[in-house]
Design goal:
Layout (H helix, E strand, L loop, with lengths): L8 H7 E12 L38 H13 L3 E2 L6 E4 L9 E4 L6 E9 L5 E13 L3 E5 L11 E5 L6 E7 L9 H18 L12 E11 L9 E6 L2 H20 L7 E6 L4 E7 L9 E2 L10 H9 L5 H12 L3 H9 L3 H9 L4 H9 L1 H8 L11 H12 L5 H12 L5 H8 L7 H14 L3 H6 L6 H11 L6 H13 L1
Bound molecules: zinc ion (ZN).
The site of zinc ion has 8 residues, from loops.
Length: 500
Amino acid sequence: MAKEPLMDFDKAIEKFDVVIGLEVHVELNTKSKMFCGCANVFGSEPNTNVCPICLGLPGALPAVNKKAVESSIAIGLALGCEIAPNGRFARKNYFYPDLAKNFQTSQYDEPIAFEGKLDVEISDGQTFEVLIERAHMEEDAGKLTHVGGATGRIQGAEYSLVDFNRAGVPLVEIVTKPVFGAGANAPELAGAYVRSIRDIVKAMDVSDARMERGNVRCDANVSLRPKGQEKLGTRTETKNVNSIRSVENAVRYEIQRQAHILDRGGSITQETRHWHEDRGYTSAGRPKSDADDYRYFPEPDLVPVQPESSWVESIRASLPENPQHRRKRLAAEWGFSELEFRDVVNGDLLDLVEATVAAGTSPQAARKWWTGELSRQANAQELSPNELEITPEEVAKIQSLIDSGDLTDRMAREVVAGVLAKEGSPEEVIEKRGLRVVTDEGALIAAIDEALSQQPGVLEKIREGKVQAAGAVIGAVMRAMGGQVDAARVRELILERAAN
Ligand SMILES: [Zn+2]
């Protein structure tokens, strides 16, 4: 299998209308699984978080995880959906080597949420309204590892291992209606949509939202039709794409691949496809018709889900601000340049900067701490900035001591280092390390006198207008005082002396 012939992207867009449809699976971060009490955690020893229910043993009876229902309702509401007052689970039957029940408990014709919409902005500022058809609850399957082959795929493998830890983990599947009219923006829109979903579920804290762990993954449907044609073209579904860049690239690739085939009078096979991130192409998976019969039927072991409207309304009232609105609001409030703001967002520092500003620091100072020294420290320790052993309140405290002249920038960095090294609060670190700016003017003047006596002629040079000559004296004073002086004040004193 290799890359197939492609049509130039711009040419493909000229000749064809692009229609995309996106199915995003969000893994919820509930403590336990969807229908049993097993722990829902990542990275355990294989087959340790399992029980008769999620292993599908005969006679085991499932029960619905209330928190998972609450999170699903929250996702539905955040996407502007209606919440079904009455919904049932259904069994989706087929052979699943990684789901021992041989059916997946899902929702079919009665999803918990339906008919929503999400405004998605792309980089040039255009906003597209993406209509949401449904968001339904289901369970994840386990994880297969194919061993012995060259590619890690089942083809050519000698044997396969199955880990059921993930089997039964709660998922919400969000399905869009077909998205028309994005044209050349279709790949970027697909990526931006997935990013929006990720940001929303992360802000709501209903999912860890780590795409590299598969917490959020996308099946991307793409079809083309000749310009002016009403009827939809045949679509392909590229499965389990788990990064935003890959979603963009997979959609772009499918547009170019399908355009090449259609342009030569060929036809598209309706099928699932796999995205190969390393080589940048999709390959055929299994054929998929619209009439695939999974023999759905209502799950007889579970009662219907009937959320009371008061519960739904209390969930609605507790939804956080939409992340896109929040970013716009903060960008306006803080007055950062576009580049400064992007650094904050890309560094995942929005919450930290916001909390530091709330603790009394100016937005610019808060930004500089988190994008500068603290990001550097986090990198050095291989942590994310919010895992650092320092709180926004402590950062704000340290900054206030700079503002009041009690700490120099260099000393402040030392205080930060002390807090990160768990030496205590900023005040305790300052005490233990003896970090206080020398504000005793008598001591400063004595140090300046000493430095001037070592470097005669400096005052003369300053009087002749060579103000930079003060630098050497400032350096000497700093050294003599162990750096614990405000260099700007020393400079002032030297210039005053020269003026007299
Ligand atoms: Zn279990």
